[in-house]
């Protein structure tokens, strides 16, 4: 029993400290790990400094701290969307694997969402599920039929050629990995990783104290 409780606590630790961070387009605000299971990572007001985003040939990139995950994008053309009801599916959900930075195409012009047009303000909400919870980050953009994404914005996949989605996905059981900090994570989120490590260490000492009391 005692071991079971400790194992349970350790299990929650590894799950809670592994999420995702949107890299591009720039998210509404700095990543807040604890708020990521809520609408727009807890940011309920649209940013006024919007990223100019291409109607066709766009992409979004994120850093995944989960080994197996599902991701999709929903979009709203409301000036300040406040509810999931204001969003429509722009990129259908698909499953993929790998930790680190990943980049996926998004073509809003062919998404079939009402109101998508040149000059329109929109909010992209990335919906990510790595097995612990559905997680959300938002980016506020202005759509443009002429803009292209600067070549200084990187678009790469941690696994090189891109771990494909539709492939025979093993069992569907996304087992939580036993460690949250993987050497494959890129340097892009050292702060977030450091936080994960720090909070992990803090929780470990709590677990140790708890174990000592038994
Ligand atoms: C888009 O958003 C910006 C910043 O919030 C605002 O100043 C501008 O008027 C909006 N444009 C349209 C077409 O609604
Ligand atoms: C908007 O401004 C904030 C605060 O200066 C900054 O952190 C963020 O990166 C900016 N967003 C964009 C899309 O430029
Ligand atoms: C957003 O969704 C809320 C809740 O359903 C609704 O009341 C509101 O009218 C919507 N806003 C827009 C701009 O569609
Ligand atoms: C990354 O992999 C996905 C498939 O999982 C693919 O659609 C995408 O084009 C790849 N991105 C790059 C930059 O190769
Ligand atoms: Cu997570």
TrEMBL record:
What membrane topology was assigned to this protein in its record? Lipid-anchor; GPI-anchor
Keywords recorded for this protein, A-Z: Cell membrane, Glycoprotein, GPI-anchor, Lipoprotein, Membrane, Signal
Q: Where is the signal peptide?
A: 1-18
Where does it reside?
Cell membrane
Q: Does the keyword Glycoprotein apply?
A: yes
The record, for Pfam families, names: BIM1-like_dom (PF20238)
According to its UniProt entry, this protein's organism is Cerrena zonata
Which protein are we looking at? Copper acquisition factor BIM1-like domain-containing protein
Which segments does the entry list as coiled coil?
none
Query: Under the cellular component aspect of Gene Ontology, which terms does the record hold?
Result: plasma membrane; side of membrane
Does this entry carry the keyword Glycoprotein?
Answer: yes
Q: Spell out the PANTHER family in the cross-references.
A: HYPHAL ANASTAMOSIS-7 PROTEIN (PTHR34992)
């Amino acid at each position: 029993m005692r071991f079971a409780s400790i194992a349970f606590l350790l299990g929650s630790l590894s799950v809670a400290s592994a999420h995702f961070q949107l890299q591009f387009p720039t998210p509404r605000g700095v990543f807040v790990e604890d708020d990521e299971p809520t609408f727009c990572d807890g940011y309920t007001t649209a940013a006024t400094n919007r990223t100019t985003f291409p109607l066709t040939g766009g992409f979004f990139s994120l850093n995944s701290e989960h080994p197996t995950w599902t991701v999709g994008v929903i979009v709203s053309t409301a000036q300040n969307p406040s509810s999931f009801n204001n969003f429509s599916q722009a990129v259908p959900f698909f499953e993929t694997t790998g930790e680190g930075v990943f980049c996926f195409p998004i073509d809003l012009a062919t998404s079939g969402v009402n109101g998508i047009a040149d000059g329109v303000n929109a909010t992209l909400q990335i919906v990510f599920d790595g097995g612990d919870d559905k997680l959300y980050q938002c980016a506020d953009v202005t759509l443009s039929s002429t803009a292209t994404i600067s070549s200084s914005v990187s678009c790469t996949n941690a696994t090189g050629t891109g771990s494909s989605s539709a492939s025979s996905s093993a069992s569907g059981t996304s087992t939580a990995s036993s460690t949250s900090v993987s050497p494959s994570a890129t340097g892009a989120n050292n702060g977030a990783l450091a936080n994960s490590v720090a909070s992990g260490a803090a929780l470990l000492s709590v677990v140790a104290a708890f174990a000592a009391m038994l």
